[in-house]
Inverse folding.
């Protein structure tokens, strides 16, 4: 029999407490050194490096040679820590900087994007988590192979699922390529090389196991890096440390500032285009939406598309398979939603404080002597200024800020110690690396595990050096390929992130919902659903130039995507009605997946294919 | 788990999921649609739309999610569909 569901290490919480204490302690130590003038320049950014070093140490400490641990993390990840991983994978660096930008440029109208992340996590928890865990698979390809009792179907679907993962990976690499050179003072290429090195350091020792434990540490850095500068700002401006509850007192001031500084700004791109491309844009929209009310359909479509995209994200769905049971899988997504909630609580506060400092009309800035924060952002290509009225002063209306400049900008404009700036950069970069790790693992698992490890050729509870060797080679090849592509081509992080979401929302989400919740979904219908969804996504991306322009009938990418989801579902239902009915083994597998109790189907499949260990008996 | 019991269990699970998703999405839609209008009303210094969308709704959804986990586990147990490892 397979030995499963080993006890969870009760000291895990202590270990992560030690990690957090070590990280914060190092931050305080560097702060003292900076205060004493003993360090400066790029050395203060050692904190970012330390985050990666500590996460890498955790990964090396969780190395494994057992197949079960390498691919499934031993199926004993507690719900709380799995929730941390779910939160950081759903967000990623591109998502974090994207929601910051959306809320900054669109104000309350940008909440659709942010709340879509939360709704996606909730949808995945309610609709998919239990079934993915019961199937026992750690890739969506294996999941569909089990659901349709056909390895060919699994491999075919798995191939298409590589597309969104590549987009997501390139989005994260793009964030690191933008921020990394400024933080570490090296070239973009060297920064990408360093990123690939970190990814391999974390993935190679223990696969999913080392990745998961390292991602927990990286998620803690994300939360600390966002909260600490905000607490200090809140203390400075409101005398209370809870920025999330005190930013309301600044809203009236901001509305007055916007009246003085923002309304007669130079015209710039409107609608979703302002976030696409990553180039600096004028700030036109007031925070409470008084200047140009965002189109209601656009807002709802954005929310719906992001929710469906997050719920259908392969890297996120696979976290359901590493828990000890179905209940823990559901609880993982609840924890993921809770951690995302902390960030969603925090983002408006972050943006309000940034707007407060940017729009403050009492601060006059001479164009001849721009402050250091603008120079730092300019060095990253995230800021520009135009003296529209020729008065030699830079008002808020004359500033051009890029989407990614919002998150990077707050600690810079606040004139914090560089260590605190470093903390925010560390949060953004660790979120990007955590997201990248999950995507590289999804790609690696498809090429190594799904394509080559057929049932009967894999035994989970043994040390299989050959399988591990080829898995590691696969991860090295994929990481290097992604690094080479990212260094040779210029991508916009948010465009890549939205492209990935579009494929997940139109391609994966309808497939998952219909194949699990509707009995009439046969093989023919699922393949049709996949093809229609991916073709629709390609068409929308091509026709909208990756979101830069509207499609036909004035539909934006988000609106077209939301309409596309409905069309894909309707077409699939029609095909399923007209096409062949599901086969008896498919119905049987579906009913098995829907029953939470009993052995995971993947384990059963492997056990029955291994007569040498069990005598072929259940 | 016999087939009759399974069908009864599955029907309840389906209804539970549908109602829950309806509640979640209705909450989000109401928040997104009426937030600009609600911002004219102030509560604790916050515009009401912002307070609802940026805080109250999030706490409600997270609470609902944890309630769902407990309720669904009880449902599994009640129908004998829970873990049997």
């Amino acid at each position: 029999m397979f030995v499963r569901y080993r006890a969870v290490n009760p000291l895990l919480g202590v270990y992560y407490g030690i990690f957090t204490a070590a990280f914060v302690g190092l931050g305080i130590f560097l702060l003292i050194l900076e205060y004493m003038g003993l360090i400066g320049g790029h050395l203060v950014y050692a904190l970012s490096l330390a985050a990666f070093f500590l996460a890498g140490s955790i990964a090396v400490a969780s190395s494994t040679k057992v197949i079960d641990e390498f691919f499934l993390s031993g199926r004993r990840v507690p719900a709380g820590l799995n929730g941390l991983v779910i939160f950081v994978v759903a967000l990623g660096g591109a998502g974090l900087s994207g929601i910051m930008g959306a809320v900054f440029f669109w104000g309350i109208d940008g909440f659709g994007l942010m709340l879509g992340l939360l709704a996606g996590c909730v949808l995945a928890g309610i609709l998919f988590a239990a079934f993915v865990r019961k199937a026992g698979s750690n890739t969506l390809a294996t999941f569909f192979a089990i659901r349709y009792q056909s390895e060919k179907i699994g491999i075919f679907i798995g191939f298409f699922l590589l597309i969104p993962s590549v987009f997501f990976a390139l989005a994260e690499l793009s964030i690191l390529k933008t921020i990394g050179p400024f933080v570490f003072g090296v070239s973009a290429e060297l920064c990408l090389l360093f990123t690939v090195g970190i990814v391999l350091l974390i993935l190679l020792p223990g696969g999913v196991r080392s990745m998961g434990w390292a991602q927990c540490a990286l998620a803690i850095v994300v939360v600390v890096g966002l909260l600490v500068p905000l607490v200090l700002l809140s203390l400075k401006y409101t005398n209370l440390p809870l920025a999330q509850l005190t930013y309301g007192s600044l809203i009236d001031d901001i509305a007055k500032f916007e009246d003085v500084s923002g309304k007669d700004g130079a015209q710039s791109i409107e609608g979703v285009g302002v976030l696409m491309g990553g180039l600096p844009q004028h700030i036109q929209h007031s925070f409470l939406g008084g200047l140009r009310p965002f189109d209601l359909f656009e807002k709802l479509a954005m929310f719906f598309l992001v929710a469906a995209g997050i719920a259908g994200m392969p890297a996120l769905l696979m976290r359901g398979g590493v828990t000890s049971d179905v209940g823990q899988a559901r609880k993982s997504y609840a924890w993921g939603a809770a951690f995302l909630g902390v960030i969603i609580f925090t983002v408006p506060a972050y943006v309000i404080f940034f707007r407060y400092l940017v729009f403050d009309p009492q601060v006059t800035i001479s164009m001849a002597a721009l402050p250091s924060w603008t120079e730092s952002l300019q060095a990253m290509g995230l800021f520009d200024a135009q003296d529209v009225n020729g008065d030699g002063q830079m008002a808020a209306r004359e500033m051009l800020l890029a989407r990614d400049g919002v998150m990077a900008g707050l600690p810079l404009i606040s004139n914090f110690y560089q260590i605190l700036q470093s903390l925010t950069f560390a949060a953004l970069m660790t979120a990007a690396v955590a997201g990248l790790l999950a995507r590289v693992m999804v790609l690696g698992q498809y090429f190594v595990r799904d394509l080559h490890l057929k049932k009967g050729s894999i035994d989970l509870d043994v040390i299989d050096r050959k399988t591990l060797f080829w898995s590691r080679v696969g991860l090295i090849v994929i990481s290097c390929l992604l690094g080479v592509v990212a260094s040779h081509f210029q991508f916009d992080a948010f465009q890549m992130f939205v492209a990935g979401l579009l494929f997940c929302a139109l391609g994966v989400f309808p497939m998952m919902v219909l194949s699990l919740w509707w009995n009439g979904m046969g093989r023919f219908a699922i393949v049709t659903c996949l093809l229609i969804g991916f073709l629709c996504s390609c068409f929308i991306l091509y026709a909208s130039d990756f979101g830069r322009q509207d499609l036909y009938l004035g539909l934006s990418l988000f609106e077209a995507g939301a309409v596309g989801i409905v069309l894909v579902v309707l077409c699939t239902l029609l095909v399923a009605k007209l096409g062949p009915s599901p086969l008896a083994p498919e119905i049987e597998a579906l009913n098995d997946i829907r029953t939470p109790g009993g052995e995971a189907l993947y384990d059963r499949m492997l056990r029955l294919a291994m007569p040498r260990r069990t005598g072929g008996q259940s | 788990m016999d087939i009759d019991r399974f069908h009864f269990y599955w029907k309840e699970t389906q209804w539970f999921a549908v109602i829950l998703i309806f509640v979640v999405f209705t909450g989000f839609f109401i928040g997104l649609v009426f937030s600009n209008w609600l911002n004219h009303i102030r509560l604790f210094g916050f515009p009401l739309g912002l307070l609802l969308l940026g805080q109250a709704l999030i706490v409600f959804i997270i609470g609902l999610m944890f309630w769902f986990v407990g309720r669904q586990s009880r449902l599994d147990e009640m129908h004998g569909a829970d873990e049997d490892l």
The longest strand of chain A covers residues 383-385. The beta strands of chain A are 281-282, 365-366, 383-385, 393-394, 399-401.
